[in-house]
Design a protein that fits this description.
There is one protein chain. This protein folds into three domains: 2-220, 3-Layer(aba) Sandwich (Rossmann fold); 242-314, no CATH class; 323-444, 3-Layer(bba) Sandwich (Phenylalanyl-tRNA Synthetase, Chain B, domain 3), CATH 3.50.40. Helix content is 38%, strand content 20%. The chain has helices at 2-12, 29-40, 57-72, 84-91, 95-114, 125-137, 142-145, 164-173, 190-205, 209-238, 264-271, 278-286, 391-397, 402-407; strands at 20-24, 44-51, 77-81, 118-120, 151-152, 155-156, 239-241, 245-249, 295-297, 301-305, 309-314, 323-325, 331-332, 338-344, 357-361, 369-373, 379-380, 389-390, 409-413, 418-421, 425-426, 438-444. β2, α3 (57-72) and β3 (77-81) form a beta-alpha-beta unit. The radius of gyration is 27 Å and the shape is globular.
C-alpha cells in the first residue's frame, strides 16, 4: 500500500517536493493510516485535531490519543475546541453540516497562519461511493455525481484510491493504533445509513460490485471535466459583457424560432457561478417568455429578464447611510427618529408589542450598534421561528414591495447580527425572556 500511495503522490502531484502539509487527524483508522503513510514518505506535516464535544469523554479521549501520537513522533499538534451544537442552532443547520463548516474553516485558517501549502484529509474510495449515493438521492447532476476531487484548492485527498478494506488491512499489518467512533455504527445520519444498510446490500448484487462502482465514478469524473470545458466554450460564445453587465439573448438570431434559445442546463451553468441555486434557475427558465421585468437575486448578483435578453449584474451595496449607535446616546434624528434606552425588568414589566417598539435583552447586546439598509445575503432569526431565514425571503413572505425593501432600516450589532427589522420583526435570539434582567428599548418616534 505504501508503494501505491507514493505512486499516487508522484503521478498526481498533490504534494509537490518541499511542500508542507496540515493533516486533519481525528484519531480514526483512516486518518491514522494516512499519518503513517506521510511519515514513511517523509512528508513535512503537522496535525490538526478538532474536538467537537459531541461524544463527551470519548471526544476528549480522541484528543489525548492524537496529541500522544504527535508527541511520540515529534510532530507539532494543534487542537481546536468547538461548541458545535450551539453553532448548529445559531445557523439553523444540522450538526453534521456545522462540524464540516467549522473544521474546514479552521483548517484553512491554520494553514494560512503557518504558511503551509496543503490540507490533507483521509477520504477514501468508500467515502467516494457513499457521497455518490448521497448526491444521487438529493437529485444532483453530473457535477455532484462525479464525487470528491483528489484536490480542491488547498484540500488534498491522497487516499481516494484506497478502499476501506485495504486501509483496515494495512492498519492491522503495520500495528497502527486508532480510535473507534461508536456513532459510525448508528444510523442517525444519511451517510451512516448508506454505509451500514445500503452498501452491504449493494455488495450482494454481484461479485466486485464496489470495484465496478469505483470505475464508474472515475469515468464520471473524466466526463465531467470534458463537459465543463464544452460548457465554458459554449458560454464564451453566447454571453456578452460590457464589463459591468453580462447578457444572453433569449432567442436565436437571425432566424425566428419558438421559445428561448437557452436550454435549462446552459442557463444553470451560467448562473450557478454567481450564486443562483437550482430552484431559482427553474423559476427563471419558466419565466423567460412571460416574465419580462422580473428580477431574481443571488447573494452577489441580480438577474433581470428583458424583452430580448437576460441581464446579469453585480449587486452594489444598497447602504447609502450607516449610522453607528453608542450605548450612551438617546436619540437618532437622521435618518430615522429613533430613541432608545435601557430599563430594568421589574415584576410588573409588560412587553410593548407595537410595531414602533422593539424590546430586547440588553445583556445580550454589544455596542456599538449599526443602523443601515438591508443587504443581499442578510440572514436573521425571526421572532417565534426556529432557525434562520434569509431577509429577502422574509420580505417575500410579508409581501414587501421593491420600494419597501429598499427603504426599510435594519438595526444590527457591530458583528452584523440583526437585532430588529425596524418596524417589523425582532430577532428571536435577542428577545426578552424570563431570565432577562435589563431591557433595551428601541422606539420609532412618530
Amino acid at each position: 500500500m505504501l508503494d501505491r500511495f507514493q505512486a499516487y503522490i508522484n503521478r498526481y502531484n498533490p504534494i509537490a517536493e518541499g511542500e508542507k502539509v496540515v493533516l486533519a487527524l481525528s484519531g480514526g483508522i483512516d486518518s491514522m493510516v494516512l499519518a503513517d503513510l506521510l511519515l514513511k514518505s517523509k512528508v513535512d506535516f503537522v496535525v490538526a485535531h478538532c474536538n467537537f464535544h459531541l461524544r463527551g469523554e470519548e471526544s476528549d479521549g480522541d484528543e489525548r490519543f492524537v496529541c500522544d501520537f504527535a508527541e511520540r513522533n515529534g510532530i507539532q499538534c494543534f487542537v481546536k475546541h468547538f461548541d458545535t451544537e450551539k453553532y448548529a442552532a445559531g445557523q439553523g443547520i444540522s450538526i453534521e453540516m456545522a462540524a464540516r463548516d467549522l473544521r474546514y474553516a479552521w483548517f484553512e485558517e491554520l494553514r494560512q497562519q503557518l504558511g503551509y501549502d496543503k490540507i490533507a484529509v483521509a477520504h477514501h474510495a468508500d467515502d467516494q461511493a457513499e457521497t455518490f449515493f448521497i448526491n444521487l438521492l438529493r437529485g444532483a447532476g453530473l457535477n455532484g455525481l462525479k464525487g470528491m476531487r483528489p484536490q480542491n484548492g488547498a484540500i488534498i485527498r491522497p487516499l481516494l484510491w484506497a478502499s476501506r478494506e485495504e486501509i483496515h488491512q494495512y492498519a492491522v499489518e503495520n500495528q497502527i493504533l486508532w480510535r473507534d467512533d461508536h456513532t459510525n455504527a448508528e444510523n442517525l445520519y444519511l451517510r451512516n445509513k448508506i454505509r451500514n444498510q445500503l452498501m452491504p446490500v449493494f455488495d450482494e448484487l454481484q461479485p466486485e460490485a464496489r470495484q465496478g462502482l469505483y470505475k464508474s465514478l472515475a469515468h464520471l469524473f473524466s466526463e465531467n471535466e470534458l463537459y465543463r470545458e464544452l460548457v465554458k466554450e459554449k458560454l464564451t460564445k453566447i454571453v456578452k459583457s460590457d464589463g459591468v453587465v453580462q447578457s444572453i439573448q433569449k432567442a436565436k438570431a437571425p432566424e425566428p424560432v419558438e421559445g428561448p434559445m437557452l436550454s435549462f442546463q446552459l442557463l444553470f451553468e451560467w448562473l450557478r457561478q454567481y450564486g443562483f441555486n437550482t430552484d431559482q434557475c427553474h423559476f427563471i427558465f419558466e419565466a423567460l417568455e412571460n416574465g419580462v421585468g422580473n428580477k431574481y437575486y443571488s447573494p452577489t448578483h441580480q438577474l433581470v429578464i428583458g424583452r430580448n435578453e437576460l441581464q446579469l449584474s453585480e449587486i452594489k451595496s444598497v447602504v447609502d447611510e450607516e449610522i453607528q449607535i453608542g450605548a450612551g446616546e438617546e436619540c437618532i434624528k437622521k435618518p430615522l427618529p429613533l430613541r432608545f434606552s435601557t430599563i430594568e425588568k421589574t415584576a410588573d414589566f409588560v412587553i410593548d408589542k407595537s410595531s414602533n417598539v422593539a424590546m430586547l435583552d440588553a445583556d445580550k447586546i454589544r455596542f456599538p450598534l449599526v443602523l443601515r439598509h438591508w443587504r443581499h445575503g442578510d440572514r436573521f432569526h425571526p421572532l417565534g421561528m426556529k432557525g434562520s431565514k434569509l431577509l429577502s425571503n422574509f420580505f417575500v413572505d410579508h409581501r414587501f414591495t421593491e420600494s419597501q425593501k429598499e427603504s426599510v432600516w435594519i438595526l444590527t450589532t457591530f458583528e452584523n447580527e440583526i437585532l430588529w427589522v425596524v418596524g417589523h420583526r425582532i430577532d428571536d435570539r435577542f428577545k426578552v425572556t424570563n431570565s432577562t434582567k435589563n431591557v433595551f428599548v428601541c422606539t420609532i418616534a412618530v
